[in-house]
Specification:
Helix content of chain B: 10-25%
Number of strands of chain B: 6
Distance between the termini of chain A: 27 Å
Largest sheet of chain A: 9 strands, antiparallel
Number of strands of chain A: 22
Shape of chain B: globular
Structural class of chain A: alpha+beta
Largest interface: A-B, 44 and 40 residues
Strand content of chain A: 25-35%
Helix content of chain A: 25-40%
CATH topology of the largest domain in chain A: Naphthalene 1,2-dioxygenase Alpha Subunit, Chain A, domain 1
CATH class of the largest domain in chain A: Alpha Beta
Shape of chain A: globular
Oligomer: heterodimer
Radius of gyration of chain B: 18 Å
Order of helices and strands of chain B: HHEEHEEEE
CATH topology of chain B: Nuclear Transport Factor 2, Chain: A
CATH superfamily of the largest domain in chain A: Naphthalene 1,2-dioxygenase Alpha Subunit, Chain A, domain 1
Distance between the termini of chain B: 41 Å
Number of helices of chain B: 3
Largest sheet of chain B: 6 strands, mixed
Number of domains of chain B: 1
Chain lengths: 435, 181
């Protein structure tokens, strides 16, 4: 099976029903190029967080797929997302990672753009252009649609794309478990300063699929579970609250989103987790009780991980974070990670969380290091002509019973690869979609 | 020409500190991780900020802030011990099989010695590092940067009390940081 997407065979490469996914998806150059048009130029992508650009003139340089974009707040406090490329000769108009500016001035010929994207300065406008350039037509390219959802900022290059909330559909319930306050209040998160950025030698879909709900890869993390880095010093994520709960996976195969959550038993009570630090423990007990008061029975739902198609993944509880898997060719991914806390979290709690985030996640994260090793060499061993003849096996849990719980999505329980199958169903649809 | 005592004290101290840093590198490169841990003070601060591209004149924002922001490392001895123990499990896949690592330490400067160069109990040092890592078959990383550290004399032995690691990269070009700087 060497069919590529360009010869019209995406369907042949993804057999979600039978649980077979071709390795071509990960290593084939043509498919990668087609993804840039079909997926990254059209899907809603996470660009940043509003707390990164609180004041007029603030900007954060981000990426949508392979392309550099600027998230900025204009003088009227409106958020914008622009392609980071001068309209004259394409030079990046901003090569800083973040900051505050009244204008973006291109270092090549000097065209300048205001923070609302308008072209406001053109050298020799009178003498050389004879005032004949229509500046109103040559502002920075702006995304046709942008959405600030509970502080997370999303954008798409497709003006006919559904609204962000339609795109998200019922996945919203699970994403809220990341973005809402620990006390159950709506939104209110902020990013801790510093976005981790690093490169991984694997296709972007390895991490996206893993975060969609790979509950099967415990052996990957055997070493960190043995030495213990969790909040109370054991395993990797020793959150006692998950013990008296049902692990539920929710897949949205039409769109490719997927989430994993825990539905606590009806009579579940608060389980102490941060005993090593009494003040932190007291805080989490308090917000947990407040959440229960506020949400009632709905407070039983606790988020774990998920992926919003195509490349935004998150950890909803701990370490509470957003990642984006930027494609950098079929064989390389640039990972970015933002860590979140509630805006009003006490300093000592933030301090404890910050340390936990760092020792868990990212290239120095004792958990994620082992994930990356697996993605790296799984990818490397899938590139050859013989390897490509053999699809990956995604049969785990096909035909397993559906849990009877009132949650949206195609549900499965505990360890099951339904979420991954759903992710590739969504991928397949996106790759074939005409609009 | 007589050489002043203070210059000799400085020279001797610099030699002693260089020897210490080379021996430390030797332990890491020879994978004697537990012996390496013995060189760390119990209250060690091991910190490696991330670096941003910022505008000229705003260089104070270049590094993520200690004690406030996210960093590559922000460790005390407890997590450094855990990191060593993780490697020693034999199932830490990112270091199994173990990487081949070479630490090169150079440009050693003694910035400060207290109470004096002749009888120092604490020394502030700056140096350069070049870490070469090669693992499995062809995977290779070069990590180059600066270190600023405070060494403290404890019962006649130098211990590392503070280490600030400045890596000269923005997007980290290595897939992980499973080794020590």
């Amino acid at each position: 099976m060497t069919t590529t997407a360009s010869s019209g065979g995406v369907k042949l490469l993804v057999d979600a029903k039978a649980g077979r996914i071709s390795r071509e998806l990960f290593v084939n150059e043509d498919i990668y190029q087609q993804e840039q048009e079909q997926i990254f130029a059209r899907s809603w992508l996470l660009v940043g967080h509003e707390s990164q650009v609180p004041k007029p003139g603030d900007y954060f340089v981000s990426c949508m797929g392979e392309e550099s974009v600027i998230l900025c707040r204009d003088r009227e406090s409106q958020l914008h997302v622009f392609l980071n490329s001068c309209m004259h000769r394409g030079m990046k108009v901003c090569r800083y990672d973040e900051g505050n500016t009244p204008v973006f001035t291109c270092p090549y010929h000097g065209w300048s753009y205001a923070t609302d994207g308008k072209l406001v300065g053109v050298p020799f406008y009178k003498d050389a252009y004879h005032e004949k350039l229509d500046k109103s037509q040559w502002g920075l390219v702006e995304v046709p649609q942008m959405c600030n959802y509970k502080g997370s900022v999303w954008a798409t290059w497709d003006k006919s794309a559904p609204s962000f909330l339609d795109y998200l559909g019922d996945m919203r319930l699970y994403l809220d478990l990341l973005l809402d306050g620990r006390d159950g209040s709506e939104g209110g998160s902020e990013v801790i300063g510093g976005v981790q950025k690093w490169t991984m030698p694997c296709n972007w879909k390895f991490p996206a699929e893993n975060f969609a709900g790979d509950g099967y890869h415990n052996i990957s993390h055997r070493s960190v579970d043995m030495v213990g880095i969790g909040p109370s010093g054991t395993s990797r994520r020793d959150l006692g609250e998950f013990a008296a709960a049902r692990r539920v996976n929710a897949s949205f195969p039409d769109m490719g989103h997927a989430a994993v959550c825990d539905l606590q038993d009806e009579n579940a009570t608060y389980v102490p987790t941060y005993q090593n630090e009494p003040a932190v423990e007291e805080y989490f007990k308090q917000v947990s009780e407040e959440r229960k008061r506020r949400l009632g029975d709905k407070a039983r739902l606790l988020g774990l991980v998920g992926t919003v198609f195509p490349n935004m993944s998150y950890l909803a509880r701990q370490p509470r974070s957003i990642s984006v898997w930027h494609p950098r060719g079929p064989h390389t991914t640039e990972a970015w990670r933002w860590f979140l806390v509630d805006r009003d979290v006490p300093e000592e709690v933030k301090e404890m969380l910050r340390h936990y985030y760092i020792r868990y996640s990212g290239p120095a994260g004792m958990t994620e290091q082992d994930d990356m090793e697996n993605w790296n060499y799984a990818h490397a061993a899938s590139r050859g002509p013989i390897a490509r003849r053999h699809p990956y096996n995604y049969e785990l849990g096909i035909g397993a019973g559906r849990p009877d719980v009132p949650l949206p999505g195609m549900l499965t329980e505990r360890i099951n690869e339904e979420n991954a199958r759903g992710f590739y169903s969504g991928w397949s649809r996106a790759m074939e979609a005409k609009n | 020409m007589a050489v002043s005592k203070s210059r000799i004290d400085h020279l001797l101290l610099k030699y002693e500190i260089e020897q210490f840093l080379y021996q430390e590198a030797e332990l890491l490169d020879e994978r004697q991780f537990e012996e390496w841990l013995d060189l760390l003070a119990e209250d060690i601060r091991y910190w490696m900020p991330m670096r941003r591209n910022v505008k000229f004149g705003e260089l104070d924002r270049e590094f993520t802030r200690e004690g406030q922001d996210i960093s590559w490392f922000d460790e005390g001895k407890d997590t450094l011990v855990r990191r060593v123990n993780q490697i020693l499990t034999g199932v830490h896949w990112a270091e199994e099989p173990l990487s081949r690592i070479c630490h090169s330490v150079s440009n050693v400067q003694i910035l400060k010695a207290t109470p004096s160069m002749s009888q120092p109990t604490e020394v502030t040092v700056k140096c350069r590092f070049l870490i070469y890592r090669n693992r499995v078959q062809t995977e290779t990383d070069f990590l180059v940067g600066k270190r600023e550290e405070v060494l403290r004399s404890v019962n006649g032995q130098w211990k590392i009390a503070q280490r600030k690691i400045i890596l000269d990269q923005n997007v980290l070009l290595a897939k992980n940081l499973t080794f020590f700087f």
